[in-house]
């Protein structure tokens, strides 16, 4: 039987676990306008980021990407990442374990 969750019902900020399992870890990121997450990495994961609402600047390695609602980005978590909300925004992130 599938596990169904409403993203809108998740209340923790800035991160809320969507499911109680770690593989793949799935979180909802919610940031207020101009809020920024410090640079960090997820070296053991491939990451998918889906912007649910708002606009987001994604610093990824040495590059920066402007994202808006509906955009999806997939990247290697070994790069430095720093999301910066241009407007209040919410995104869904999936951290898929790397398979070597």
From TrEMBL:
Pfam families found in the cross-reference section: Cupin_2
InterPro entries with a match to the protein in the record: Cupin_2 (IPR013096), RmlC-like_jellyroll (IPR014710), RmlC_Cupin_sf (IPR011051)
UniProt-recorded name of the protein: Cupin domain-containing protein
Domain Cupin type-2 per the UniProt entry, residue ranges: 30-87
């Amino acid at each position: 039987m599938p596990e169904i969750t409403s993203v809108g019902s998740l209340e923790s900020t800035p991160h809320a676990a969507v499911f109680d399992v770690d593989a793949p870890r799935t979180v909802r990121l919610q940031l207020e306008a101009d809020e920024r997450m410090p640079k960090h990495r997820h070296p053991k994961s491939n990451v998918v980021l889906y912007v649910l609402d708002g606009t987001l600047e994604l610093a990824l390695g040495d590059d920066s990407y402007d994202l808006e609602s509906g955009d999806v980005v997939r990247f290697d978590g070994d790069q430095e990442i720093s999301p910066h909300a241009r407007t209040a925004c919410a995104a869904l992130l999936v951290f898929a374990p790397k398979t070597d």
